[in-house]
Design brief:
- The protein is of the alpha+beta class.
- It is built from three helices and six strands; from the N terminus they run βββαββαβα.
- The longest helix is centred in the C-terminal third of the chain and has 11 residues, at about 75-84.
- It is globular.
Length: about 80
Amino acid sequence: MMAVYVDDLSQYPGQRVLWSHLWADSVEELQHFAQANGLKAAWFQDRPGFPHYDVQHRFRTKALVWGAEERSLRDWVKRDAEAR
C-alpha cells in the first residue's frame, strides 16, 4: 500500500499562493503518485533527507481525494529522526 503525505498549507514571504509539501515513504512511491496525478518531473525537489514536491492548494485538495494522508511536517521530522 502506497503511503503519500501532504502537509498543512503555508504562505511563503512575498507570495500570495498557499503551498504544501507532498512526500512519501519512498521516492519511488512519491514519483509514482506524482506521475499518476499529473505533476511534472521538473517540480520534484530532490532535497537531501526530504525529497518532495511543493504543491499549491488546488493540488493539495486533489491529493487528499486521491488517497494522500494529511500529516504535519513535524510528523515527518519526528519520523525521520526516529529512523536515524
